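Page 42, continued from yesterday. The earlier attempt failed because a stray header line got pasted into the input along with the sequence. Redoing it now with the clean sequence only.
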Amino acid sequence: MVVQKLKSVLKWVAPYGIVELSRNIRRDYKYSNLYLKYKHPETLSVLGKNKILKDIHKNQRCFILGTGPSINKIDINKLKNEKCIFLSQFYLHENYLTINPSYHLFSGRAPHLNGKATHADWINFFNQIEDRVSTKTLLFMNYLDKKFIEDNGFFAKHNVHYFYFKKNLHNVFKSRIDAMQVIYGASGIPIMAIQIALYMGFKEIYLLGIDGCNDKATKASHFYDRQKSLVDELGEAPADVLSDFYKLGTELRAFLSLLDEFSLLRKFAENNGCNIYNATRGGVVEAFTRVDFDSLF
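This time it went through. Structure tokens are written below.
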């Protein structure tokens, strides 16, 4: 109790920079190999499975596909023979199974526990993932969801790799991206996917459906109908966010953080011989060089 009160006092009287520095040092130590080796060796054991992914696609190219409305402006069948990392609920796309993606990443339940979704809602969502995603596709899951997944018997027939996103991304230049350890936290799932793609050794990374905004004509925030999703309807409707200054401020701060993280990873990738391009048609993400999707084939 005394220690907690002391921390609270120091938080308010110490300069902001000192507080942030202290917080970052504590966080990086808490998720360091040294700490986990003695406190949580089982975590390192699980992450150790990612060793086989290290540079598995060295000097190749990949496509990371988000669920932005711009996806409806391209022919994703062109990606049939490409290495792709699909994000979130991309399995709702009518051509998803014909592409038969190599990898599918989910940010998971853990980052959204403060939302409206109940335990039963998440059970239904993970059941849908299990039903829609082929067992030939490697599932990339958030390590924080591992207990929930195993307790409920999900993905027994799938090959699942867990990634632990917790370290401060601003320290990426001081270290490296090593998925056998805790890697860097993210303001959005594209940041998670880019880290994994870099770890797998891709030399060229193309982003698709990473719009960062709603479609101007339809006001849609995804390529699919919001009502077809088991979880979108449980979140805040866009109209509700726009009508609430606090919610709008939260969304704007998250978006600005995402743009900052895009810029950090672009510089990190370039320093390591990898180029990241934005092949999305439209949108507002300008952190990467724009390329025309059709020109890539």
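Notes: The chain is about 35% helix and 15% strand.
Reminder to self: strip header lines before submitting.
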